[in-house]
């Protein structure tokens, strides 16, 4: 109790043969237990969810907060890992130092919705 910020790095990675629906089912169950505890012990804290698929888990947990009469805008998704992966990809191709690469990644956490904006980074935009 008394927390202002709670970071929730939870869930399992997708395993071979596991589709995104399977991943969602498992990870939403894991996140729900943690969010329930936060609702009880630190309902005013901002919650940063690092749980994939983040674009599906965050709205579900926000709805859980709403149903409890809590401020759903306190639930945020953290997608730093997607950006780190994009930066590493650019580094491996270009050799540019990692600390100079910053590829913004937008959209959801699915093959059809995630979009690294390579054109917005100097090193990445040099990839033919």
From TrEMBL:
Domain Lactate/malate dehydrogenase C-terminal as annotated: residue spans: 79-122
Domain of life: Eukaryota
GO molecular function, one term: L-malate dehydrogenase (NAD+) activity
Assigned keywords, A-Z: NAD, Oxidoreductase, Tricarboxylic acid cycle
Catalytic EC class: oxidoreductase
Catalytic activity: (S)-malate + NAD(+) = oxaloacetate + NADH + H(+)
InterPro entries reported for this sequence: Lactate/malate_DH_C, Lactate/malate_DH_N, Lactate_DH/Glyco_Ohase_4_C, Malate_DH_AS, NAD(P)-bd_dom_sf
EC number, UniProt record: 1.1.1.37
Stretches assigned to the Lactate/malate dehydrogenase N-terminal domain: 2-63
UniProt subunit comment: Homodimer.
Entry protein name: Malate dehydrogenase
Organism: Strombidinopsis acuminata
Lineage: Eukaryota, Sar, Alveolata, Ciliophora, Intramacronucleata
